[in-house]
Design a protein that fits this description.
5 domains, Rossmann fold, alpha/beta, RNA-binding, three-stranded parallel beta sheet, Glutamyl-tRNA Synthetase, domain 3, about 10% strand, four-stranded antiparallel beta sheet, Glutamyl-tRNA Synthetase, domain 2
Length: about 500
RNA sequence: GGCGCUUUCAUCUAACGGUUAGGAUACAAGAUUCUCAAUCUUGGCAUACGGGUUCGAUUCCCGUAGGCGCUACCA
């Protein structure tokens, strides 16, 4: 499929390498991915490192690794290649300079010498100061100064910025795919800095427009925080004369805190006990560690599914969807407009659903390292069997260990509540009798043992619950777990009797 | 402060003028069972407020209030 101008659909995800990838960024990337796939288009990975001061080593690699884990694949860009490169903005200085000069020559931009300190002083002095048509002639720039002065300042090495000349009193309309027409007056826009001579790099706005144009991006799907500057971007496309191929915009609602006010931040994760980053992040400067979904044992499919539904729905009641299903169902028009609270409780539910959805063999492979860490070496078949018995009662693979360790090792201690409820009165006596009965059985398989034991209990006139739970406590250490004959079947006759008789002595 | 976006159960959301306002999570109860889960059933819970337009507003318009974002030589 193509866009309105008949072009192949091309979208991009363009993070700044200033730290770990925020979970909101993951969702933005996901929506771009779904959109690109659905339209048979391209997804570009661009690095927007125009702020040299905020560059963080390792961030780019982290972001790539995160998408790899999540299963979001790019078609071109940094580390993927492509014919529109380079895809790292810091490597495109010459390109930007050329376009800055074009704007300068066309009189759509001008050079300004005001230092950050001077501007700060101005803002302190004049409330609501804005660098625009009403103030620019009072500032130090190529509009207010003679050309000879400007040239002299540059020649003597003064730093400067290039500002975009904005004509006041013009209504600028952005046609947003999610929100419809959004109109603002150009008078509320300031003469944005497009370029800094100090590091010879553009700011976001200029780089963004030039790159999207050059890379033939057709749709810009990004967070709502960009909506206020979208009219500025439209003005830039006009200034360059690129309005006919200007991409279409879609501004996504923000991810909000689970409780309280404001958008989801790094702090919330620490405070409420859930990650806000896909992968664990070790800050190279502060040595601080932020938790990640991968390390916290979430399945990438669950994270993706949960995120997809935060601000979008397929139009019917389905919630569990594969990435491919989402690709065919995705629709920008079905995106909601209001911010979504990040309710991680539901993510836990998704994780549980995906554990249930995956085969025992798949879960067993994920569980194997956990077992090994606990000193358990078992065959894949045994592990799969154990997984099948207990996976419905866990939300995370890591919880499997606590739920089924008794399948691999005898209990070393007994849960007090369980003892109080089930290990009393006749329990030691009946359990001992049951052991003798079981020992005498020729066929120990669960299928044969269950009816035999039930008949024995009936014959003796015992209460089924009391006998079974007493046995359960001796084998498991608590009144939890799967069907008791599944457990005896798994651990075997010898171990069953050994545990039961040992417990009778230990608990006497 | 200015500008913009936004507003349906606690939370994520459906209903693109006519429904007993639906689903999911969470919560509660029940069923099942040797226990804990899972599963199934059931239950409570919402159209922010005030005006219009209309035969009829969750839905369209205006206002108010709340929420969010932007307002950098950050993205």
């Amino acid at each position: 499929m193509t866009d309105n101008a008949g072009r192949r659909v091309r979208v991009r995800f363009a993070p700044s390498p200033t730290g770990p990838l925020h979970i909101g960024g993951v969702r933005t990337a996901l929506y771009n991915y779904l959109f690109a796939r659905q339209h048979g288009g391209d997804l570009i990975f661009r690095i927007e490192d125009t702020d040299s001061g905020r560059f963080v080593p390792g961030a780019e690699e982290y972001i790539l690794e995160a998408f790899d884990w999540l299963g979001i694949k790019f078609d071109e860009g940094v580390s993927f290649g492509g014919k529109y490169g380079p895809y790292r903005q810091s490597e495109r200085r010459d390109i930007y300079r050329k376009y800055v000069d074009m704007l300068l020559e066309a009189g759509r931009a001008y050079i300004a010498f005001d230092t950050p300190q001077e501007l700060e002083a101005k803002r302190a002095e004049i409330p609501n100061f804005q660098y625009d048509a009403s103030t620019r002639m009072g500032m130090r720039n190529s509009l207010s100064m003679p050309k000879s002065d400007v040239d002299a300042l540059i020649a003597t090495g003064n730093q400067y910025v290039v500002r975009f000349l904005i004509e006041p009193d013009q209504d600028v309309t952005v046609n947003d795919l999610i929100r419809g027409k959004v109109t603002i007056s150009s008078s509320v826009l300031d003469d944005k800095v497009l370029y800094k001579s100090a590091d010879q790099l553009p700011t976001y706005h200029l780089a963004n427009i030039v790159d999207d144009h050059l890379m033939e991006v057709t749709h810009v799907i990004r967070g709502e925080e960009w909506l206020p500057s979208a009219p500025l971007h439209v003005l830039l496309y006009r200034a360059f004369g690129w309005e006919d191929t200007m991409p279409q915009f879609a501004h996504l609602p923000l991810l909000l805190k689970p409780e309280g006010n404001g958008k989801l931040s790094k702090r919330d994760g620490d405070r409420l006990g859930f990650p806000v980053f896909p992968l664990e992040w070790h800050d190279p400067k502060t040595a601080e560690i932020s938790s990640g979904y991968r390390e916290k044992d979430y399945l990438p499919e669950a994270v993706i599914n949960f995120l997809a539904l935060l601000g979008w729905n397929p139009g019917d009641d389905r919630e569990i969807m594969s990435l491919d299903e989402m690709v065919s169902l995705f629709n920008l028009e079905k995106c909601s407009k209001a911010g979504a609270r990040f309710n991680y409780q539901k993510l836990v539910w998704f994780n549980h659903e995906y554990i249930m959805l995956k085969s025992d063999a798949e879960i067993a492979q994920l569980f194997k390292p956990v077992l090994e860490r606990n000193g358990i070496q078992e065959s894949d078949e045994r592990i799969e069997k154990a997984v099948s018995l207990v996976k419905n009662r866990v939300n995370f693979v890591g919880e499997l260990w606590d739920s089924c360790k008794y399948l691999f090792q005898a209990p070393t201690e007994f849960d007090e509540k369980s003892l109080k409820k089930w290990w009393k009165d006749e329990a030691p006596k009946t359990t001992a009798e049951l052991c003798d009965f079981i020992e005498a059985q020729p066929d120990f398989s669960g299928q044969a043992l269950e009816p035999a034991v039930m008949a024995w209990i009936a014959e003796k006139g015992y209460a089924t619950g009391k006998v079974m739970n007493a046995l359960r406590v001796t084998l498991v250490g608590a009144a939890v777990g799967p069907h008791i004959f599944e457990i005896t079947d798994f651990i075997g006759k010898e171990e069953t009797l050994r545990r039961a008789r040992k417990a009778i002595q230990a608990l006497a």
